[in-house]
Amino acid sequence: MRSFFAFILAILGLGALALYSSAFIVHQNEQALVLRFGEPLPAVTTPGLKWKVPFIDTVEKFDKRILDLDTTEQEVTAADQQRLIVDAYARYRIVNLLKFYQNVRNEERVREVVGPLIESEIRRVLGSATLQEVVKDKREALMKEIAAKVNKEGQDYGLEVVDVRIKRADLPQENLVKVYDRMRADRVREATELRAQGEAENNRVRANADKDVTIIKATATQKSDEIRGDGEAERSRIFAGAFGQDPDFFRFYRSMQAYSTALKPDDTRMLLSPNSEFFRYFEDPTGKAAASGAPAQR
Fold this sequence. Notes:
Number of helices: 10
Strand content: 15-25%
Shape: rod-shaped
Radius of gyration: 58 Å
Number of strands: 9
Order of helices and strands: HEEEEEEEEHHHHHEHHHH
Low-confidence stretches: 291-298
Helix content: 55-70%
Largest sheet: 4 strands, antiparallel
C-alpha cells in the first residue's frame, strides 16, 4: 500500500512539474517566440498565459515597446564641403519577430546589425545637403528621409524604424576656431562701422549746434546793437531836450562828467592855461567867472 501511495505521489509530482514547465506568461509589453528543438514556431504577440511542450520547447521573449538605438559619432561632409561631426539616434520597434530572430537574433545585436545602415543613410542624406540646410532650413525633412530609407531596409530584419534624430551636429574643432575668428572679425567690422557712423552723427550734430550758436549770437548781437543804438538815440534826444530847456545846467552836467573822467584818484597831472574854461566851475558854481575872463585859481 505504501508503494502504491508513493507511486501516486510521484505521478502527481511529475504531473505538476510537467504542468509548470509547459506554462509561461507573456506580459503586456512583451512578445515571445517558442523554439522547438531550436526551430522557431509562430510568434506569440498577445499577452496572457501561454503553453508549450515541456522539456522540448524553449521560450525567447522580446520587447514590444519602442526602443532607442544610439549611433556612432561620425564625420560627414556636407554638399558645400563643410565638415560636420554628427551624433544621432534612432527609435525602432520589432514588428516581425520571426525575421528579427532569424536575422538579428536578439536586441543586443541591433546596434551591430542595424547601426551601420542608419549611419550610412545619415552620411548619404546629409552629404547631399548644405550646412545651412542640415543645421536649420531642412533638418526635419532630412531626418524623415533618413528614417524612411532605414525603415525600408529594416523590414528585412523585422524592424520598423519610427524616427531618426540628430542629437548634435557640430563643426570640427579646427573649423570652430576659424568660425569663431570669422565671427569675431565680423563683429569688429560692425563695431567699427557703428563707431564711424556715431562719429559722423556726432560731427553733424556739433556742426549744426555750432551753426545755431553762431546764428543766435549774431542775432543777439544785432538785437543788442539795435537796442544800444535806440538807447543812445534816446539819450541824445533827452540831452538835446535838456540842453534846450536849461543850457546852463547842461554845461554844468557835461563839465561834471569831464571832471569825473579826467581827474582820477591816482597821480594826475594836467597843464592848462590859467584862464582855461575847464575849471570854470571850480571858481564859480555858475561858471560865469571863467567865461568873463577872470583868472581861475588852482
